[in-house]
Each structure stands twice: as C-alpha cells, then as structure tokens.
C-alpha cells in the first residue's frame, strides 16, 4: 500500500492487497461533492464506513444537485463542472468516468455496498423499488461499462450475480436473503417498462449458474405479484429446463399469455412423463382461462389424455366447476379421434428434400430452436418453401428433442404470424401449400378437430382474428379420404348456416353417412338445419328437394333483396364479416343493420376470371354524329376562339354481357357505355360517359387527348397499357360502406367505424375494377358518391341520396377514379349527367 493510501485509511485500513490507485479513484468519483462541502463526510463513509447516517443526511441536504454529478459519472451543467475542477485540480468528467471503472473493478464488496448506499441517497429519483441502493448501484455499473475500453471489459467480467449478492450481504440490502435481494433487483421492472438492462447480468454463463444454484429463490421472486421479466427468465431457464421445472410448471399457467407460451415451449424439451407429472395438478387448480395451453400440451404427450380423463372422473368430493369441466371434456373427447378404424387416413411416406445439404442444414438450425422459445425462428417461411413435405420439419424437431413438434409445425402453418408477412401462412394458403401440409394433419385428426372449433381466440388483441375453420377445411380437402372420426364434426358444419358449410360439403362430397344425416335433418324440427339440409341435398341433385331462397343463412329481412340473390360463394364474405364483427364485440342487432347496407356489384377477380363485360383502352368507337367527349376552353385574350381538350377513353362496357341482377343499378339491358377520364390532378380530373344504344352504327374515331396523365408520360402510354390488358372480366361481388361515416350514419350505427374497418380487411386480393356497390375508401377523403351532389357554380344542390356509384377504377398508383350518376338519370339513360372524381395521394 502506498504511503498516501495508508494516511487516508486512518483507523480503518484497507486490506493489505488493496490495489494501488483505488483511494485516488474514489476521491475522483466523489470530487463533485467538494463545492457543497460534503466531500469529507462522504469520502470517510465510503472508504472507512464512518458515519452510518451520512448517506441519509446527504440525501436531504443541499448537496443533492452535486450528488447527481456523482451518479452521472461526473457529467453535469457546465458551471458545476468548472466549480468541481477548480476545487479538485486535474479533475474532469473524463477522469471521473475512468475512476469509476477502477472502483468497480478493484473495490471490495463492503466498499462497493457503501458506495451504492451513497449513490442511492444522492440520486434525485423517487425512492421506489427500482431506486433502492442496490438497484442504483447496478444501473451505475452497467452505465459505466458501456464503453469498449479494457477497463470496461474487466468490470463486465467481474460483475456477476454472485458479486452483487456479496455486495447485498455486505450492505444489508432489502430482501429476505442476499440472493433474494439480488434476484429482486435484477428482475425488477419499473411500471410502464418492458426492459431493464440489469437482466443482462443474468444473461451469461455465470448468470445461468447462479440461477441454477438458487432455483427455489428464483421461483419465489419470479412468481411474486407484479414481478417483471418473467418471459425473459423463462427463456434463460429453458437452457436447463429440468433444473427449473418447478418454476416453468408454475409459469405455464401465468396470468400473462406470452409467459405461458414461453414456459410451455421450454417444458417441451423434457421427456413426456415429467411434463405430465408437473402439469397434471393444474387441471384442478389453474384458472380455466389459463388452461388451454396445458390441455394442448397434455394432448401431445403419451398418457396426457389419461390424466385429463382422471381429472374428470376423480371422486374426491371436490367437483370441477362447469367451465373447467367443459374444457377438460372437450379435450378428452378428442382422444377418440385417434382411436378405432378410420381414425387416420392413409398418408404417403415422408418425402425428404433431394438436397442432402438442406437436411443437414435443417438439423443444425432446428437444434438452436430450443433457445428461441415460443418464437420459433425468423425466416422459417423460406425453409418451408424448400421442403416438399412439412413432416420433414416436424421430424427434425423431434430429433432435436422437442415433444410438441406436431403442434409447433401445425401452429406455424395456420395461426402464427410469420416474419415479414405480418399474417399467418394459412391466410394465404395456396393449393401447392396444402399439398405439402396435409399429411401432417392427416396423422393428427385431433389437431384438425381443435382448429375446426373456430377463431384463434388466444391471439394478441391487436392482431386480426385467424379463421382456423376456413384454413383447416382447405387442408382437409386434400386428404385422400375423410377420417371417419371427423365426419360428425364436418357434417355439423355442413348443416350449419355459416359460410364454412360450403367448404365442409366439398370435403364430405357424397359421403353416405353425412348424406343420411342431411336427410334426417331435412325432416327435423330445427329450422336452420332444415334449410341447410335442403340447400345441400338440392346441390347434390336429391330428387324432390327444393333449396331455400338465397341468403337464407342471414335470417329474414337482414339483407336487401338484390343482395340476397347473390351466389352463396359471394355471400361468404358477408358471413365472414359478421363473424369477425361479433368477435370484436359489436352487438348482433347492429351488425344485422349494417348488413342491410350491403349491395351487389361486379368486380375484378385476382385470377382474372369471370365473363368478359368490356374492353380497356381504344379503339374509340362512336356514332358518326356523336362528338368526341371533351371540355372546351376559351383561348386567353381571343374572345371568339375556343380550345377543346378531348377526354381519354378508358373502358368500353357491353351492357348485354353484364349478368342480370349483378348490381342493384337500373342499367340498360344492352348497348355500350364508354367511360372517359383525363387523369390530371391539375387543376382537377375531368371525364364523363357516352351511351351508345344497341344497333346504332359506330365507326372508329381518331382521338388525341392532350393532358398531363397522372403517373404516365403521355395519354398514348396509358392507352397502350390499357390495350395490353384488353378484356375486362368481372365476377359477382358484394360491398359495404368503408368511407368515413357522417353524423347521421353514426347515430344509426354507433359502431360504424369498427364495422367499416372490419369490412376493409375483407379482401382476396381482387383486381382494380368495380361496377356498382359502395365506393371504396381512399385515405378517408370521404364518400365520392355523396360528394357528387355538391353543386357546380349556378346549380342547385342535389340530394346525396340520389347518387350512386356507376364504376370505380384503381388504375393509377395511389389513387382511385370514380364515375357517379343520379339513380334517376341512370334509369333515364342520361349518361351526360355522369360525374368523375379522383382521390389521390401523389
């Protein structure tokens, strides 16, 4: 020890092996207290332990602002930095930062505890749990090691949970034991936060070892009310799930959905009997709303269904509550789907990828999944595209040691949100996908039954509901045969009123058992089943069966007559909307009133199907005596001359090709309609329509529109692109309002904003054209149909309720064009009254 150190140590000498420079470093750290005349007391307390009341006294004194500089590593207002430098020659914030690293690298536990107590007293933060002196000290250490210097690296290596526990013991930190105080400090989260750097001290090998030695205390701290970091703790415990099995079992029914998922993901790497053993008690004790994950896991394990049955049949004088009993019974009943003849249909052998390197790569990657918890792995959708049979992925997970491989892959394919897609893979299920996925589900009919129960209600509240019935029916349609054990459930769906009845009937085909049930329902007393059976059997060609009126599934008086007449495949979208609206909490009467606003339309299909109803672009065919549509402008400065700007032809529509009843508009039965527009934002778009009655001779007309086309170099470039598209094909569709509701609409429909938002999400990626129906919303600019009633100069205001959407085209980037007309003018063939609007966000 140097002479200077010995002199400063006084009656409380430091250990003989105390590093040279520690006292000087402490002096530099505490130098900001000199201008407040508080240095001597603080220095003596930290170095020697003198004056145990010093921290509290300093915390209440005028030294606090200067103390904040100590807590801030020497940084502070410029005038205070100058004052400290004047009182302590050679001092600077940079010197204070370096000195702090020396203290944290070399000081013994007792000195560190006193330094932490002083920091806790001097900090200006509220004295919450997060600001206990041990927490303040830990935060200060982590702040000090943010640099990449050698000193910072040495401090990082020294500061482990074990050292923190020593410091807690030396300083008497709040807590039942030093280990308890340490874990409580490292796992604390301030209200409103979801991350704390203190946890980083547990995210190391030393942290893993500390957690492994103190599993009992860890369980006590983590499961305490309000304790944070439970999800991250679960991920760390997954590295040694057997040692932490008690904690993981407790967290499997945690109040937080994400924590439950992580705990079950960690347990999945243990052998099945151990999982059954620790999860079994939850069947009778856990809150029923936290049981689904436990029940799903037990269903995946040998003996799992047996313990569920035991819980149902136990006669210990403590009967199960009704909700718990229903959940257990529903899960237990699925066990029968795996038993008996016809339970599992034949499946082809697993088809491995032809690339051996891919298999090796897959095994290597899957082995790392253990440490990624419930998130599986990012980018897995790219792997799936390279695997001809998803059971390859399932088998790789099994080899890696997980017991939930079937369910992990099934969830991945159906309800999990995947990477950049931002939505489930099953939501965009293609025939090729179904062909690669179905064998997995054919081997697990109990999983199929789970997904056939309905929406994924365990999703995050901010995520769109996942229609698992729709997804699963598309997959089951690929089965080589329908498992006999699933026929009752599929038949129940087929005889219902939901849109899923159509897919369920396709799956069942002409299954004799299902057809017999349908015949029985036809003579039954339940009205919905009778109507559904009549619709189904009539579609199968059953003699003497009369189908119900279209739209029966929505109830009498809900849909407008024109909408009821739409094909069932089109009304499918309204049923999907209704289910999601009810799932979002909109009252059923209000949902039905909104459905009454539904209107039929024709629209482009994503696959370009449907009958040809017109042609895009030129040639321009008009009667000889019909003028080319356009606008005439007076030439500036020359009163007797005018300039005519011809409009551009966009579509020639053949009314004779438009199916009767495809819209609720009073369209002519034949003839052609030419739609024009000048898509120019400056000063505004112009356009109109010309109707040519059937039989009127036409000839090709030269036309040279002269305007600046939005997002095109010239009108000629736009026309060339339209001609390349050529035929316009449209299929039946249905529409609901999506533009912002006005006050009257809100008064009639209090949930109008929610309802229009839900409908806006109902899309199959269809094309850009629409005839009839409601106008599509664009950036909440408003309803262009009602907006068409605004008068031009000198005209009287017309009734917005008289106007209808004739056509709309989303043909330009970030914009939509609308052609609107008063209904009575449409009926009178007054197409000169067509108005054109363009909503754009250039």
Brief synopsis:
With 842 residues, the protein is an alpha+beta fold. Helix content is 45%, strand content 9%.
What would you note in describing this structure?
Pfam families: DUF1963 (PF09234), HEAT_2 (PF13646). InterPro entries: DUF1963 (IPR015315), YwqG-like_sf (IPR035948). This is DUF1963 domain-containing protein. The structure is a single chain. This protein is α+β, with helices and mostly antiparallel strands. Among the domains are: 1-124, no CATH class; 356-476, no CATH class; 616-634 and 641-728, no CATH class; 731-840, no CATH class. Helix content is 45%, strand content 9%. It has 41 helices and 15 strands. A 6-stranded antiparallel beta sheet has the order 11-1-12-13-14-15. Helix 2 (22-30) crosses helix 7, helix 8 (109-122) packs across helix 11 and helix 20 (292-300) runs parallel beside helix 22. It is globular and about 110 Å long. The termini are far apart.
Structural class: alpha+beta
- Averaged pLDDT: 86
Low-pLDDT parts are 1-12, 126-130, 457-461
Compute the CA-based radius of gyration.
37 Å
Strand-residue proportion? 5-15%
Helix count equals: 41
Silhouette: globular
Strand order of the largest sheet: 11-1-12-13-14-15
| Largest sheet, strands/sense/barrel | 6 strands, antiparallel
Helix content: 40-55%
Quote the distance from N terminus to C terminus.
Answer: 75 Å
The count of strands amounts to 15
Protein name: DUF1963 domain-containing protein
Organism: Streptomyces hyderabadensis
